[in-house]
Amino acid sequence: MNPFRGILGFVVRRLLVGCLTVVAVATVIFLATQILPGDPAHALLGRSATPNAVRALNQSLHLDRPALVQLKDWLAGLGHGDFGTSFQTHQPVRKLVREPIINSAFLVLVAGAISIPVALALGIWAAVRRDTRFDSATTFATLAVAAVPEFVVAVTLVILLSTNVRHWLPASVILADGEHPWDQRKELVLPVLTLVIVVVPYITRFMRASMIEVLESDYVEMARVKGLPERVVILRHALPNAIVPALQAIALTLAYIAAGIVVVERIFGYPGMGHAILNAIEARDMPAVQTLGLVLAALYVGLNLVADILTIIVTPRLRTSLR
Description:
There is one protein chain. By secondary structure, the protein is an all-alpha fold. The chain has 13 helices and no strands. It has helices at about 5-35, 40-45, 50-60, 65-80, 95-130, 135-145, 150-160, 185-215, 220-225, 230-270, 275-280, 285-315, 315-320. Helix 5 packs across helix 11. The longest helix is centred in the C-terminal third of the chain and has 39 residues, at about 230-270. The protein starts with a helix and ends with a helix.
């Protein structure tokens, strides 16, 4: 049987499961927004709103319908690519969230492009130099940093690099009309550095453990017995097998970055998804909250699917099992 057909079947099955997962998450997100305290009509009209005005606005926004009817209409709209209309701006939500999604994606890509190679290199080198001072220092540092929440890291960096201690970098991301985050590279340093510091310990420790396990395997010992140079043993025999489990850790880490940027974006005023979600919650803009939450869920499912596919591609045993 063609192995690619087996992989294709696996991908199709995972896509179906992923779609069902996203639909389930969308339902949970919608129901969660229904129980948020406060009334969107009151939030939009202000405290001086009269009962008649609130009632009329609820009718115009279709909020007077039963929750299950609203859920059915929203899911039907999602099936046609219609994410609804913002309560706050009266614009299509799809246009409203486009820029925050792009900005957050850029931040995640930059942080991932820096943190993943650094973490993999540290993990590999710590495993190769096991029980040395470098390994002990790396283990202690990653444990210490992993215990610190991202908001503490962000605030500490602001204090050290953006106040009277050292005023080297701007403490917030301020963009003019028409500007993008990549137009203000200096203002991106602190948000990116925060995410890198938060993420690196997890991948480093996972890669170190995976590399140590592979280095102690029989086939690596056999390669050494054959007299192969240590560099060849590590790069050709150990690393390709040790990187496979790390793919799942990398995917989960990228998903964690996407979810963790809510706090980081809020602290630095970064105009991304996290900042948009908090603003939408404060304004009780439910369509925007639901759409942004759905995007995060779809991103999480997608990253896990990509990690599973890459794991199968680089693992001959798994490819054979799918035939």
